[in-house]
Every structure is written in structure tokens, then in C-alpha cells.
Amino acid sequence: MPLKGLNVLEFSGLAPVPAIGHILVDFGANVTVVQRNLVDMGIARLINCGKKSIGVNLKHPQGVKIIKKLITETDILLEPFRPGVMEKLGLGPNVLMEENPRLIYTRLNGYGSYGEYSQRAGHDINFLAMSGLLSLYGSKKPKGPANFSEFAGGSLVCVMGICMAIIERYRSGKGQVVDANITEGISYVGSWLYCSQNSVIWGNGKGQNLLDGGVHFYDTYETKDGKWMAVGAIEPEFYKLFIEGLGLDIDKIEQFNNSDSNREIIARTFKEKTREEWSKIFDSKDACVTPVLDIDEVDQHSHNASRNSFIRKDNTLLPVPAPKLNITPGISRANEPIATYGQHNSEVLKSIGYSQIEISNLLKNGIIFEETKSKF
């Protein structure tokens, strides 16, 4: 696995940072989560399977000492807090990178480490709004996709930064701070949308563009059984096959004229057959027409099934690691147990020189914590 041998110390927090640890562990890294209190790691199974858990009181000097010892054996640190929190704990990058100059200190927050909004709370919709991209989604009322910015602009952009820092460390031998924030991350992911403003693709009002339902050949249509088909027949050769698949006359359904009336004709036609019937028709045509699959049925589609793109754990559907590497692919940890709070205290602390007696005293004095009985 490509990240085998890399040790990651993840400080527990909301989902975008645990999702980074989830990606790293799926591709071979050893991820240990530092939990400051009794948090149910089972809430989000996908992002916590395969990780170790230690419970540490970071407000106690001995707890801070434990982290500093762990840092000497750590390659990547994942930090989810608002700016300044780690510095107040005595665990900021300047301190920890003195302990380990090869450390890749990764911090992810909503608005950045400085600036007017840097100390503000926020969620996905807020970050997407501040990027300007939310204004492009929805109909008249802005309405964005769920958790788009936090995981695409946050977690994935952060993983990209970590990978680049790892490559640089092979050259220089030095670590660095990966300072990521969700607002700038999702803006970067949306670079193409900024560049396409005032163009034929995205230059008109909302709902009047090529890619937001403004044309009849790039839209979704309801079928006879109340399900949906997605149409993306932009290129003329695809559009021709699309109209043929519907059994309509392309001379009467011109691609670049009468979009509203064409949409009505196409909508009526789609309601004549079920989604399964239309899928069978278009599976034999390269027309950019596909069924809109419900999230609980995607693993049953023949294409996804042929690639083993999804797995199930306790009736929960989960995607497998992506992308697929042909020599060192990622392996989903979804079928591994979820660590209970502080489950790996002894294992982790012994690895950095603590004796069992010392560990027992740390537990007795409230410097480390553990859940006495597993709920999973």
C-alpha cells in the first residue's frame, strides 16, 4: 500500500478532518486518533474504521508531554481546530516541528488561519456561500449539494497538500505546515466555474446555462415509474443517438432551437416507459444517457457491480477507496472494528517508552482516559 509505514496523529474533530484520516488509513497509513473526551467514534463508521484511539487530557502538562513524545514518531499531524487552539495548548507547529523537523503539520478549518472570519464557526453551506459558488446552484433560491465543500474543498484538497508535502520531504528531508481551509479549497476545486463565467457554458442567469438545466439536452427526466434518467447529450453525435433512442425525429427536435418546446416533447416521451426500459435502450447507445440511481441501489447496477465499486457493512452502503492503483491499491477498512475511546492507550504509550505502571498512574490521575465497556 502506498502509505504503508507512515504514522498519522489525528486530533478528533468534526467530519472533514476524520475523513482525511480515513483516506490515509485506506491507503496504508497508521492512524491514531487523539480524543479529548468521550466521543462516539461509531457515529461515522466510514471515517473511523481501522484507526486506533487514545484518550488524552490535553489541558494537563503530562498530556501535552505525551503528545510531544508521540510527535517524534509521527509523520503527519491532522488538526481540526479554530486558529490558535493548538498554540494555547502548547502544541502549535513551531513547538512540535522543533521536536520533529520532518513533521507534516496539517491544519484544516473553515475560513483560514487569519482574516476577519478566521474565528467564526461555519458549515458546508456557509463555506460554499463565501466562495461564491453557492450562487450558481439551485433554481431561483440558492441551494447547494450536501457536504460538497467540506469534503471536496476540505478533506480531498488537504490530502493533496499532504501528498505534495510528502514528496517534498523526500527531496529536502524537512516537513512543513499544510495550512488548508474549506472556503479557499472549494474555490480552488471550482476554478473551472470561475473561468467559465460570461461564456456560453455559464454566462447567463441561473437555470439558463448549458450545464444547469437551461437546455433540453442536459437535464433530468421523470420516467413512467416515477424514477429518473439523466441526459448529458451535449455533442451533436451524442444528441443524434439520444433522439434516436427516444424514437423521435431529429429534424423535428433540433438541438439548438426551441429548447423549451423540445423539453416538453422529451419529457412526455420519457414518461412512456419505466427507468429500467429506458436504461436497456440507452445501454446499447453511446448517447450520454444514464439512470439516476438511488443511493441504496448503486451497488446493484451491473457496471458498479462489475467493478466492485461498493461494499456493505451492517446494511450500510460504502464506496471503496478511489482512485484504484494497479500496484498498491487502497483497501477499505469498513469491515474492521471501530476503536472505543482510549482502546489503544497501552499499546500506543508502550511504543514510546511508558511502562504499564506509568500508564496505570496516568489513567488513575485523569491524564489519559478510556471507555471501560465497548458499545460496539
What does this structure look like?
This protein is an alpha/beta fold. It is built from 15 helices and 12 strands. The chain has a 7-stranded mixed beta sheet, with helices on both faces. Strands 7-8-9 form a 3-stranded antiparallel beta sheet, with helices on one face. The protein has a two-stranded antiparallel ribbon with strand order 10-11. GO terms for molecular function: alpha-methylacyl-CoA racemase activity; transferase activity.
Distance between the termini: 28 Å
Mean pLDDT: 91
C-alpha-based Rg, rounded: 25 Å
Largest sheet: 7 strands, mixed
Number of domains: 2
The helical percent reads 25-40%
Anisotropy-based shape: elongated
Assign the CATH class of the largest domain: Alpha Beta
Order of helices and strands: EHEHEHEHHEHHEHHEEHHHEHEEHHE
Task: State the fourth-level CATH superfamily of the largest domain.
Answer: Crotonobetainyl-coa:carnitine coa-transferase, domain 1
Any guess at the CATH architecture of the largest domain?
3-Layer(aba) Sandwich
Strands ordered across the widest β-sheet: 6-5-4-1-2-3-12
At the fold tier of CATH, the topology name of the largest domain is Rossmann fold
Total number of beta strands? 12
Which structural class fits the helix and strand makeup?
alpha/beta
- Kindly estimate the percentage of residues that lie in beta strands according to DSSP: 5-15%
Tally of helical runs = 15
Poorly predicted runs are none
Organism: Cinara cedri
Family: Belongs to the CoA-transferase III family.
Protein name: CoA-transferase family III domain,CoA-transferase family III
GO molecular function: alpha-methylacyl-CoA racemase activity; transferase activity
